[in-house]
């Protein structure tokens, strides 16, 4: 791996965490220092910082175990993996009924990250694939997830004047985006009408976990000529899929 931008402190922290994970409630500062070759003063600083961040917990005998932070991160990781699996299990019905493509994605800062995709048998393929990132304001799933944020949070994600116009229909300013988000909050879903790519429309709704957090979104995309007579059924199918996934999301 390219080490030009390597951060040695992170590598040292990982070495320490790995040892603690392998031998919980066994290793003290001196043991960790000896095993890693990190001097005692640096190890003290590392452990103190990681304690403050809840990465590790120092026990009564001055041994260490992993902290609650990794429980939260682990749950988030496996919830994400579970969500993809659940989507794949439940989406087949919607694809069969509507005959169009359904997708799953989550919001990461100002970008939409695609997690899964189920295509209907068709000659035209969408540009998006799992792992792909697109600017959230130009997509239905992105906008529905942005609508869960405060206006100030949304504006902070994009520098005014830098909105990229993918098509003539793409949002061009923060003011225009906020106006759309206000409508999305009222109606409970978002629409992309040829905003990311010409010739396609999309409708999206959020997936909500049991804590009320909007953790992802599902969408249905179709060629624009299908939109007038399929949009109502698409909204119905997306609602069924989103609510079904929300209902079974783990805590």
Automatic annotation (TrEMBL):
One of its GO terms (molecular function) is DNA-binding transcription factor activity. Pfam families: HTH_IclR, IclR_C. The keyword DNA-binding applies. GO terms for biological process: negative regulation of DNA-templated transcription. SMART domains: HTH_ICLR (SM00346). Residues 7-68 form the HTH iclR-type domain. The keyword Transcription regulation applies. Keywords: DNA-binding, Transcription, Transcription regulation. It comes from the Bacteria. SUPFAM superfamilies: GAF domain-like, Winged helix' DNA-binding domain. This is IclR family transcriptional regulator. It comes from Paenibacillus oryzisoli.
